[in-house]
């Protein structure tokens, strides 16, 4: 029988893309990862990795076996869920990742409720943008990923994941000073999320559909920074309601909200989801975290 831990390392190499990244995740040396994969190759009797330049990549058989390893880990997670469900106390460690504005608005209350309801559950948190959070979830480095999906830009469906819709977060465009039309916004400096991010691509396409090319002068993933630039009269920005209605440290809305014509663009919003892996969502600790997240975000 093939060694499960070595299969997991193979799957991790497929997911993370380098021996160094796998080594960091498992807190071992790259040489140890390479040695374990070499032992797996001997077990199989077929090359599973190959050197391409300075990188170690999977062969076609290596990729096929990595997909099988995903199935094996999924079965093991389902088995763990069955065992956990048979125990009287909800316990264990559950790992959640979310983007910044969600964390600021909701995580403290989610954590407080989990501690009160399930004191034997340890909740771990990582700040990750949605794309990275989905990668971590698929790679089994976290258990729950909070993601967003922007209006007019549906995300690909991951068949191995379950999705729970939490709420719709309205987005409003704000200008640093009054403007007469959407086309006037071409002459206004803008602050967007980092180039290449889903949020930045959505913002650019939304402006282009409205008939102008935004002049992007500032980039940051911190939406509070966006808000502060608008309030200071320095930049225009798209700001979701979550920035203002977080229930913890409410902040004032900028004065110059922009009427976004429905003829030029659809309604501006993002849908926020909680994602789990199929099988893993059956674990009591994971189920409890998702349920508390739903209650907290429902108000």
Automatic annotation (TrEMBL):
Source organism per UniProt: Rothia koreensis
Keyword entries, A-Z: DNA-binding, Transcription, Transcription regulation
Family: Belongs to the LysR transcriptional regulatory family.
Keyword DNA damage included in the entry's annotation: no
Protein name per the record: LysR family transcriptional regulator
Domain annotation HTH lysR-type: ranges: 2-59
Statement: the UniProt record of this protein carries the keyword S-adenosyl-L-methionine: no
GO CC terms: cytosol
Taxonomic placement: Bacteria, Bacillati, Actinomycetota, Actinomycetes, Micrococcales
GO MF term (any one): DNA binding
